[in-house]
Design goal:
Blueprint: E1 8-12, E2 15-19, H1 41-62, E3 70-74, H2 81-92, H3 107-117, E4 120-128, E5 132-139, E6 144-148, E7 151-155, E8 161-165, E9 177-180, H4 195-208, E10 217-222, E11 228-233, E12 238-242, H5 247-260, E13 271-276, E14 279-282
Parallel strand pairs: 3-5, 6-9, 9-10, 12-13
Antiparallel strand pairs: 1-2, 4-5, 6-7, 7-8, 10-11, 11-12, 13-14
């Protein structure tokens, strides 16, 4: 009977001990458990968003549809629109000669480079998706054509250089051509002569333009003397004026001497000098 008992009970004094069946396991032969890695649901969403962002970046910056393919120039009058367009195209090419993506292209850099070459007002550049640049500006008012160091320039009434111009595109009907025969005067896109001198030349030009006094202006000539302006007549003499003397007075003297002394041989004269008060020198 005792052998069938599953538990034994012993009493020693007031204390007792209990014995029960125990299972013993060898720690070196434990059964391996299967481990499952659970990825949270939000991680899949983040991965999907990341993939979508990468695809969007690739689509925007690497698909040819967004490469610049057209440039439009608005506002050109005297300045050649084609010239500015060609200049802009040069700035849009990469060092490998490939076209630039419209999103990567810097409008500010192009504005800076155009302003370095031309003197414009209200220059703005607009990106029009997917592949077009629009250049808008207004021209400064051209007052003179300035010739210096074998180049011709349009300039405004205070001497700001507007743009370089090709000789074939020059029109002298409405603005005077001025040759600089002295030291170079263009510094930082500005002609370093007095605005009063430019105004004097303009007044002379409008006084004698359109053969008003029976001769035609070829060009004006300036040298290092700030007070002197020379007018070269087509097929005739050079006429010297003093910018500090009254223009109307000098004009009257010129017309008087032409009518009285040079009526028949004006074109044969080499020069007429009006710079010395009431005296007139000629040859």
């Amino acid at each position: 009977m005792l052998n069938n008992l599953k538990k034994k009970f012993f009493v020693r004094g007031k204390k007792g001990r209990f014995y029960s069946k125990k299972n013993y396991v060898n720690p070196y032969f434990r059964k391996k458990r299967n481990f499952l890695i659970k990825i949270p649901a939000y991680s899949w969403k983040l991965l999907l968003i990341l993939i979508m962002i990468i695809c969007l970046i690739w689509f925007i910056f690497f698909v040819p549809i967004f490469n610049i393919k057209k440039i439009t120039v608005n506002g050109a009058i005297k300045i050649s629109a084609e010239e500015i367009e060609n200049f802009a195209w040069e700035q849009t090419k990469t060092i490998w000669g490939r076209k630039v993506n419209i999103f990567l292209f810097s409008k500010n850099d192009l504005i800076k480079k155009i302003n370095e070459k031309y003197n414009l007002d209200n220059l703005r550049i607009e990106k029009k998706l997917p592949d077009k640049l629009i250049i808008n500006f207004s021209e400064k008012q051209q007052a003179i054509i300035w010739f210096e160091a074998d180049k011709y320039y349009y300039a405004d009434i205070v001497g700001n250089i507007i743009s370089e111009v090709d000789l074939l595109n020059i029109s002298q009907k409405n603005i005077p051509l001025i040759n600089n025969n002295g030291d170079n005067k263009i510094i930082d896109k500005k002609i370093k002569i007095s605005p009063d001198k430019i105004k004097f030349i303009l007044d002379l030009f409008f006084e004698f333009k359109d053969k008003k006094h029976n001769f035609e202006i070829e060009r004006f000539i300036v040298e290092n003397n700030e007070n002197a302006v020379n007018l070269k007549v087509i097929g005739g003499p050079i006429i010297y004026f003093n910018t500090k003397d009254d223009l109307a007075k000098q004009t009257s003297k010129l017309i008087e001497i032409i009518n009285q002394k040079f009526k028949d041989d004006f074109s044969k004269k080499t020069y007429i000098d009006l710079r010395f008060g009431d005296k007139v020198y000629y040859r």
